[in-house]
Amino acid sequence: QVQLQESGGGLVQAGHSLTLSCAGPGISNYAMGWFRQAPGKEREFVAAISWSGDSTYYADSMKGRFTISRDNTKNTISLQIASLNVEDTAVYYCAADIFMKGAVTAQHSTADQFDYWGQGTQVVVSS
Q: How far apart are CA 108 and CA 114, in angstroms?
């Protein structure tokens, strides 16, 4: 069982930046991803990072403003979001792929690729 805990969400003004974190024992061994779910919408992929951090993959719509990173010494991953807008309002989830080694690819853009999920952290962007 892999327990993941997101943090860093909250109420943010549009135009500002925010960094979300995800922590959990042993996640330094796993490829990790971030997804989000806006009210009334399906969960969508944001970004993924390989266990080593050498490989990242972003949804096309997330390229430029979103940056995924990790610190394996602290068993954490992060998601930096720049220039927030109201459309970024969502619950953000981190997820662990405990089987895939090597580079992350488009395969990681699907929720089915991931084995464990956190409870999510709410981000609300005000205009």
A: 8
Give Cβ neighbours of residue 60 (< 8 Å, ≥ 6 apart): none
10 burial level (CB within 10 Å; 0-12, 13-18, 19+): exposed
Place of tokens 């990681």: 108
pLDDT averaged over every residue in the chain: 96
The radius of gyration of the chain's CA atoms, rounded to the nearest angstrom, is 13
Cα–Cα distance, 9 to 2 (Å, whole number): 21
Reported as half-sphere exposure (CB side, CA atoms, 13 A), residue 11 has a value of 2
CB of 58 closer than 8 Å to CB of 80: no
Residue 7: burial class (beta carbons within 10 Å; 0-12, 13-18, 19+): middle
Cα distance between residue 81 and residue 64, in whole Å: 9
- pLDDT tens sequence across 67-126: 999 999 999 999 999 999 999 999 999 999 999 888 999 999 999 999 999 999 999 999
